[in-house]
Model the fold of this input.
Amino acid sequence: MSQTDKPDIIPPSPSAAEYDTDPAGKPLIPDTSDPIGLFKEWMAAAREAEPNDSNAMSLATVGPDGMPDVRIVLLKEVTEAGFVFFTNLESAKGQQLTETPKAALGFHWKSQRRQVRVRGTVTPVSEEESDEYFATRAAQSRISAIASDQSRPLTDRAEFEQRVAELSEIFGDGPDIPRPEFWGGFRVTPLEIEFWQDQAFRMHDRLKFVREGEGWTSGRLYP
Done:
């Protein structure tokens, strides 16, 4: 198959005519000393505009072999203390974060043409926080979490489905499905936060915050 015969799966770069449909571009990122407040504003806008999972984020970790690893997880809380998500603590990401408690996060809101990058240190959330969030999940989601040996080999899908069925018989849809000890949350305490806003002709706007003591310093970057 020649190069010209290959299926065109990668879209081309926007043309001048396509950029001209939005000549004013998007608003520039406002100057602020509060990156967490700005993040919450962007997250609220994304929730209104994204078709689903506006809280989805890429989570990058480092494996024991020094190789990077990345996957999509869901943000469940953001405060001045950091960004919180939950997982099976014995999963690949759980083990990687326990051994190397550093991570990077990436948010991309396509409808808004925005992204946010976060780098920071990682700590487990408290048992109470994990219990509180686990109790808010649908009963079947809690049962699936108990049944799953996340990230480990699965010989047959039917084996997992059988575990779920057996636990469903035990717990039903009741509110008292206990959080397993191997399931909990992590908090990424940001050391750097970078905001990116699309602009026409690749003249994107970037604003980076770096933590200094109890506050932040900030500056714009070339796109």
The radius of gyration is 21 Å. Residues 25-134+182-221 form a domain with the Pnp Oxidase; Chain A fold (CATH 2.30.110.10).
